[in-house]
Amino acid sequence: MNSLRILVVEDHDESRLALSRLLRMSGHEAVPAANAHEARALAASAMFDVLLIDLALPDGSGTDLLRDLRQSSNAPALALTALGEEWFAGTGANAGFSGWLVKPMVFEDLMSAVEAAARPSAPSQYAASPTSSLSHRV
To answer: Given 54, 92, 93, 102, which is the most exposed site by the fewest CB atoms within 10 A?
Structure first.
């Protein structure tokens, strides 16, 4: 897959750095944001192929952020959450998320979800939940 430009919105410093590092190691460009304010500023100045958005941000919700970003971007968005399928079915899809990743996540699940979301013919839902593997957890 070609290199993707990915906006990583995560308020937890270690998680944001780990996600960004792993995406870069996989050949993608990761642009980190620690909160909704930073994400809005970055999205106003650049286009992204995929949006990874934590749902619980210190300055607002990830769903509100995505609604704002939808004014200028149609990039597929994946929610970073501790919630799962019930949340996605009830709120996530209506907010414009293509799918979700349950934290903590396994590296392979992250990459599969991001690359699937970026495919033009991708289905409308992606999900990755924690597995028993402890390697490469983010």
So the answer is: 93
Whole-number pLDDT of residue 86: 64
Q: Is the N-terminal amide bond of 104 cis, ω within 30° of 0?
A: yes
Residue 58's Cβ-side half-sphere holds a number of Cα atoms within 13 Å equal to: 9
| Residue 53 in this model has a pLDDT that exceeds 90 | yes
- Asked if residue 116 lies in contact with residue 122, where contact means CB atoms within 8 angstroms, the answer is yes
In angstroms, rounded to a whole number, what is the distance separating the alpha carbons of residues 93 and 90? 7
Tell me if 16 is assigned to some domain.
Answer: yes
Please give the model's pTM, rounded to 2 decimal places: 0.84
CB contact at 8 A, 24 and 30: yes
Instruction: For residues 94 and 15, give the distance between their C-alpha atoms in angstroms, rounded to a whole number.
Output: 26
Helix (H, G, I), strand (E, B) or coil at 130: coil
| Beta bridge mates, 80 | 54, 101
Q: Residue 92 sits in which domain range?
A: 5-128
Kindly report the number of other CB atoms within 10 A of residue 38's CB atom.
17
**CA–CA separation, 73 and 96 (whole Å):** 11
